[in-house]
Amino acid sequence: MADTLEFNEIYQEVKGSMNDGRLRLSRQGVIFKNSKTGKVDNIQASELAEGVWRRVALGHGLKLLTKNGHVYKYDGFRESEFDKLSDFFKAHYCLELMEKDLCVKGWNWGTVRFGGQLLSFDIGEQPVFEIPLSNVSQCTTGKNEVTLEFHQNDDAEVSLMEVRFYVPPTQEDGVDPVEAFAQNVLSKADVIQATGDAICIFRELQCLTPRGRYDIRIYPTFLHLHGKTFDYKIPYTTVLRLFLLPHKDQRQMFFVISLDPPIKQGQTRYHFLILLFSKDEDISLTLNMNEEEVEKRFEGRLTKNMSGSLYEMVSRVMKALVNRKITVPGNFQGHSGAQCITCSYKASSGLLYPLERGFIYVHKPPVHIRFDEISFVNFARGTTTTRSFDFEIETKQGTQYTFSSIEREEYGKLFDFVNAKKLNIKNRGLKEGMKQSYDEYADSDEDQHDAYLERMKEEGKIREENANDSSDGSGEETDSSFNPGEEDDDVAEEFDSNASASSSSGDGDSDRDDKKPAKRAKIVKDRKPRKKQPESKKGKDPNAPKRPMSAYMLWLNASREKIKSDHPGISITDLSKKAGELWKAMSKEKKEEWDRKAEDARRDYEKAMKEYSVGSKADSHRGERSKKKKKKQEKQVKGKGDKKGATSKSSSSKSPAKGMSDSFKSKEFVSSDESSSAESKKEDSEEEGAASPPPSSEDSASGSD
User: Fold this and answer.
1) Predominant location of this chain (predicted)?
2) I need a labelling partner for 7 at 20 to 30 A (CA). Which of 324, 430, 618, 676 fits?
3) Is the four-CA dihedral 619, 621, 627, 633 of positive or negative sign?
4) pLDDT per position as a tens digit, 129-147
5) Tens digit of pLDDT for each residue in 296-307?
6) Tens of pLDDT, residues 29-55
């Protein structure tokens, strides 16, 4: 027979909720590891008192009772596994695995039996239901009634909150059955009652989660946080782990208490209690117990009088009362020598601590991720800058955590740490030449990232050298050709589309200009419309109708507030992802409703666009008519100027040289003053070239006369 038996997907009933995990039976005892919290229950073989096999809702279940009264329930077994378990119990634990089914008669009267921490309601010899007394939060009595109230289960949609038992009166003198029932319940129930004095009190401690200053009173079975607004009572049985983490500034310390179930304030759940201490704060502590009681209870872990740093005293007392180890950072050291990494999670900046068996992020919101629940990690390029990267962690349950804005200098240390812990790195295949279906993070590793930057720098240097060489060569040749060469170089630098290409084309133009200077006038003429190009560019008309939105965008605008209320504190990117998932999962009928709204919006847009286009055409026609009218007026003004020039010539015929200069000056003055467009300037210059010779000939003839 095998020395061990292992079962996967086994469910343990804890405080009314079913937590899945793995169960292992060995010669030494029974071990169950919770997949959700990582908590391990270890039952020694010598402690087992009874084993019961019975049919339950999830197939078949195993109930184990220990000698000190604890009860453990595990469900999810198959019927065929009974023989294997029964033989294993006989061979290694010397126990008979009994088959005992629950009574399903439906009767509501019977006998109550208290066994250890379990209340069993029996009909005859068969149990109907069992209540773990650790689930009881309050017990009250009436005339012939006992009322049990239970802790609320946050993981269940529906929770049992109250059960009432009717206890008939008996003829026995001196014994009240109702009070006896209540005392049996209260002796084992998880009822927090601050009876007696606290062992010690820590005053005005700074608490980050929940935020505020709290007095912490230490009682034998629970922790009492007393603040100005709220009070919290935390049983030591709900404490999962303790962490003592140094701040990056080396002047402060975080003390983190992990809780399951969490403490509640309204709809807010606090899974972690985070205290912040200064290393310089010292305290002298005296326990409210005599030395014999301290020695007997804590076995040397605490003394009656202690002194030291405040964070050391708090952590020492908590470790002794909770009886759990304190987790501290391991041998990881970041780029700056600190044992943590500065990063951002969701919208807040915080510190990520790589531990020996997991990661913990403080402080808002606190996150603890164990190595055994990590599916893979991923090093991704930062979305906003190349000087940082993102560290992504995905768990086996599919939950993804992204720690962003990590400095590039931390990459090597973090990669070596992850590699040493043998975690699966998602994009390691890129370094080993493995093919991937997508190239999203091709440059996410530090070596490739640097190579990419160096390559871009080299290309930039080459472009600068080419641009300098070409600009030097073109400068020598363009000195001789003043207007065309300078204008071409300025245009190339202004647009800067390809500096080397524009400069080389400038060289070719300057060579052609030296050989054929007659083409320079063409370059000057072609330059005029180029100046008008920015004016002719049409910007977007603010009065134009806006394009209609798609069905998805209409739905997103209508549902954005609801998604935010359902997921408080969700970031913009997570909101977009969640909206995409909801839209994808939406039924076809609901999508058709939004498709119809989008179609209506599209029709309204087309109608508005038609009206807008008709109005814009009318405006353009009016503009053309005004331009034509303006040109006509300019021509009329120019005609009057010509007549004035002719009269001035006839009046000044006695002095030929003076008349020639006056007529030329007046005509140039009139044309430059009255004309406004480039076309009128051209016409004036052409008319001047054609009209200037005749007056000179007439003047010479009149002079001879």
Assistant:
1) nucleus
2) 324
3) negative
4) 888 887 787 888 888 899 9
5) 888 888 888 899
6) 888 888 777 778 888 888 888 888 888
pLDDT (tens digit, 9 = 90+) per residue, 180-226?
888 888 877 766 655 567 889 999 999 998 888 999 999 888 888 88
Tell me how long the chain is.
Answer: 705
**pTM here?**
0.51
Positions of E strands within 26-155: 29-34, 40-44, 48-56, 59-66, 71-77, 97-99, 111-115, 118-123, 126-132, 136-141, 145-150
Between 320 and 697, the higher pLDDT residue: 320
Separation in Å, CA 540 to CA 171, 544, 545, 618: 97, 8, 11, 18
Ramachandran bin of 124, using left for φ above 0, alpha for ψ from -120 to 50, beta for the remaining angles: left
| CA gap 257, 271 in Å, rounded | 8
> What confidence category does residue 117 fall into, taking pLDDT thresholds of 50, 70 and 90?
confident
| Nearest alpha carbon to residue 394 among 403, 406, 381 | 403
Q: Mean pLDDT across the chain, nearest whole number?
A: 75
Residue with tokens 């740093």: 309
Q: How far is CA 226 from CA 203, 204, 215, 658, in A?
A: 10, 9, 5, 110
Strands of the 239-246 sheet, one edge to the other: 231-235, 222-226, 212-218, 200-209, 268-278, 252-265, 239-246, 326-327
Sheet order of strands, 111-115 included: 111-115, 118-123, 126-132
Positive or negative: CA dihedral 217, 218, 224, 225: positive
Please report which residue ranges of 244-338 form alpha helices under DSSP H. Answer: 291-298, 310-322
So what's the pLDDT on residue 99? 86
pLDDT, one tens digit per residue, over 601-624 is 988 888 888 888 877 766 666 667
Cβ proximity of 393 and 343 under 8 Å: no
Number of Cβ within a 10 Å radius of residue 348: 11
Closest of 51, 186, 42, 68 to residue 119, by C-alpha: 186
Non-local CB neighbours of 689 within 8 Å, separated by 6+ positions: none
Determine the Cα–Cα distance for residues 13 and 19; give it in Å rounded to an integer.
7
Supply the angle between the helices 588-651 and 551-566 in degrees, to the nearest 10: 120
Could you read off the pLDDT of 374-417 as tens digits, one per residue?
A: 999 998 876 666 788 899 999 988 889 999 889 988 888 899 99
Q: Which residues contact 501 (CB under 8 A, 6 or more apart)?
A: none
Structural domains of the chain sorted by starting position, each given as residue range(s) with its CATH number in brackets: 4-99 (2.30.29.30), 111-187 (2.30.29.220), 205-327 (2.30.29.150), 341-421 (2.30.29.30)
Residue 505 pLDDT greater than 60, yes or no: no
Omega before 271 cis (within 30°)? Answer: no
CB 2 within 8 A of CB 26: no
The pLDDT of residue 508 is above 60 = no
* Residue 672 neighbours by CB under 8 Å, 6+ apart: 681, 684
DSSP per-residue codes, 315-338: HHHHHHHHT-PEE---S---TTS-
User: pLDDT: is 484 or 353 the higher one?
Assistant: 353
> What's the Rg (C-alpha) of the chain?
45
Q: How far apart are CA 449 and CA 642, in angstroms?
A: 74
Which has the minimum average pLDDT: 267-281, 358-372, 681-695? 681-695
Cis check: omega of the bond before 484, within 30 degrees of 0: no
Alpha-carbon distance 702 to 705, whole Å?
5
CA–CA distances in Å: residue 65 to residues 7, 99, 118, 260: 19, 14, 10, 23
